From TrEMBL:
Single GO BP term: fatty acid metabolic process
Native organism: Paraburkholderia xenovorans (strain LB400)
Domain AMP-binding enzyme C-terminal: 423-496
Residue numbers spanned by region Disordered: 500-525
Protein's UniProt keywords contain Ligase: yes
Protein name: Long-chain-fatty acid CoA ligase
Keywords in alphabetical order: Ligase
One Pfam family per UniProt: AMP-binding_C
InterPro entries (alphabetical): AMP-bd_C (IPR025110), AMP-bd_C_sf (IPR045851), AMP-binding_CS (IPR020845), AMP-dep_synth/lig_dom (IPR000873), ANL_N_sf (IPR042099)
Ranges of compositional bias, category Basic and acidic residues: 508-525
EC number: 6.2.1.-
Family from the record: Belongs to the ATP-dependent AMP-binding enzyme family.
GO MF, any single term: medium-chain fatty acid-CoA ligase activity
Length: 525
């Protein structure tokens, strides 16, 4: 298999004059970008990084970040991209855990770098006059000698590590997910195939390049000689302008960002007709948003992609509106099973319709081989050649997969296992509901009670929503026993709902008309 450096060279050789990268006023063709990438790759070598060394990069989605990603592939350096919002202790942990040899960062995260003791002993390339740097990006490029004998030569092979992605670490320490060039290329090829990308596609580079979705957007565009338009920080109006200006053809976003696009006042007057393919991942999309997006874009393809950093693709559904909530079937590089919730082996299979834990075969081309320096995490998640995802779900009678949540998010109320996703899908269809998240809150009688946290589009009260649930197909024991109206639903930087914050009371109540409204029952019928 080709390594990623040679993969990029394919596009340079096929379409040297095709537009490859845009960031504000900067626009580069594949030939121009390649020359820049080569300079940066040589600059990394001049900085003292050798094949297999790790480089920590703490940047937003700017041209330097995309360029560094490709430069590392050419230089054989392992890129370790980190959330630019990382706290000093998180950055310190990753510097030490990954054993990085240098850091590239920008002003927004300069304080975190400055407070990391381990970082102070390393070369620090700072952009935009970032404080505490030992070199700047121009110096890095100037150190490169693109006319040197080996300039432009790829120093990696398909079995070398390409990057280490750090999971969010919402509980305990973050986990490093090392992925080889062949894993990354297979995942990018699958992304192209499963989203039916054609030559010259154009996409919005908004999903962060420290996240598997962002990396996949970057790599997949190179595979089809396409365009990657950088979005440094999410702004719906900027995104809409980029769609119209650059005639983007495909979007790959988390549901939250799609919600923001539709909610922006400029959406109705923006020409989005060039967008023919929609894809989403990172979190379930509720039925209400699915319908609104389908009507607004009228896409030729609407893909629900379910995956992870560890195994990029678990399953896909290429017609997300046909069976709302369905994650479809295993991707082209994947085998999936659903085992019982208490299962310890991959052979303890759940029955059709029975909720269990989703697992994936580690022999799949996109699958990682184990966590970085974390034998404890490997012992928990890797069993008999299968990856235990920690996600709950079930196969329906037709063999389609439904993802119901996380094992840790499962609400156990009165002895019943209750998935938040089922309830959210029903409530999302009410016209007054803008966003909704369901979580379990401690209850002396029931263990946990089901609480719906609702961000309203227009005024609605708890009794109205309860009556709505009663007339839906939601079984009685899953109905929320309490409604809390909030200003916003707390989410991670990549748009995942943070249910633990809701359960802990970390939210701002909606004080418009009433601070909150509750509907409580003392019995379950």
């Amino acid at each position: 298999m080709l390594d990623l450096g040679r993969t990029f060279l394919q596009s340079v050789e096929r379409s040297p004059n095709a537009l490859a990268l845009v960031d504000g006023e900067l626009a580069l063709t594949y030939a121009q970008w390649h020359r820049l990438i080569v300079k940066v790759a040589e600059g990394l070598r001049a900085l003292g990084l050798a094949q297999g060394d790790r480089l920590l990069v703490v940047l937003q989605n700017r041209w330097e970040m995309a360029t560094l990603h490709w430069a590392c592939q050419f230089a054989g350096v392992v890129i370790v991209p980190l959330n630019w919002r990382a706290k000093p202790e998180e950055l310190e942990y990753c510097v030490t855990d990954a054993g990085v040899k240098a850091i590239v960062y920008e002003p927004v995260c300069a304080e975190a770098v400055a407070q990391s003791v381990a970082a102070q002993g390393l070369p620090r390339v700072g952009l935009d006059d970032a404080q505490g740097r030992t070199a700047n990006f121009d110096t890095l490029m100037a150190r490169g000698e693109p006319e040197a004998p080996n300039a432009g030569r790829t120093c990696a092979n398909a079995d070398d590590y390409s990057l280490i992605l750090y999971t969010s670490g919402t509980t305990g320490k973050a986990k490093g997910v090392p992925r080889r060039h062949r894993h990354e290329r297979a995942a990018a090829l699958a992304h192209v195939a499963q989203n039916l990308y054609g030559h010259g596609e154009r996409t919005l580079g908004v999903m962060p390049l420290y996240h598997t979705m962002g990396v996949r957007s970057l790599l997949s565009m190179a595979l089809v000689d396409g365009l990657f338009v950088c979005v440094r920080r999410w702004n719906a109006r900027f995104a809409l302008d980029a769609i119209a200006q650059h005639k983007l053809t495909c979007l790959y976003l988390v549901p939250t960002l799609y919600h923001d696009l539709l909610a922006d006042a400029a959406f109705a007057s923006t020409d989005t007709s060039t967008v023919k393919k929609l894809g989403f991942a990172g979190a379930p999309m509720n039925d209400g948003l699915l319908k609104r997006l389908s009507a607004a874009f009228e896409p030729e393809l609407f893909v629900n992609h379910y995956g992870s950093s560890e195994v990029y693709t678990f399953s896909i559904d290429q017609d997300a509106t046909k069976k709302p909530g369905s994650a479809g079937r295993a991707g082209i590089n994947t085998r999936l099973r659903v085992v019982r919730l208490e299962a310890h082996t991959p052979e303890d299979l759940a029955q059709a319709g029975e909720e269990g834990q989703i697992i994936a075969d580690l022999l799949g081309d996109e699958a990682f081989e184990g966590y970085w320096n974390r034998p404890d995490a490997n012992a928990k998640s890797l069993r008999d050649g299968w990856y235990f995802t920690g996600d709950t779900g079930f196969f329906d009678a037709q063999g389609d997969l439904y993802v119901s949540g996380r094992v840790d998010d499962m609400i156990i109320s009165g002895g019943e296992n209750i998935s938040p996703v089922d309830i959210e899908s029903v409530l999302s269809l009410h016209p007054a509901v803008d966003e909704v998240a369901v979580a379990g809150v401690k209850d002396e009688r029931w263990g946990q009670r089901v609480v719906a946290f609702v961000k309203r589009r227009e005024y609605v009260d708890a009794d109205t929503l309860d009556a709505y649930c009663r007339t839906s197909n939601l079984v009685n024991f899953k109905r929320p026993r309490e409604y809390v109206f909030v200003d916003d639903i707390p989410k991670s930087p990549v748009g995942k709902i943070l249910r633990r914050k809701l359960s802990a009371g970390e939210y701002e109540p909606d004080r418009r008309g009433e601070s909150h409204a509750n509907h409580t029952e003392t019995t379950k019928e």
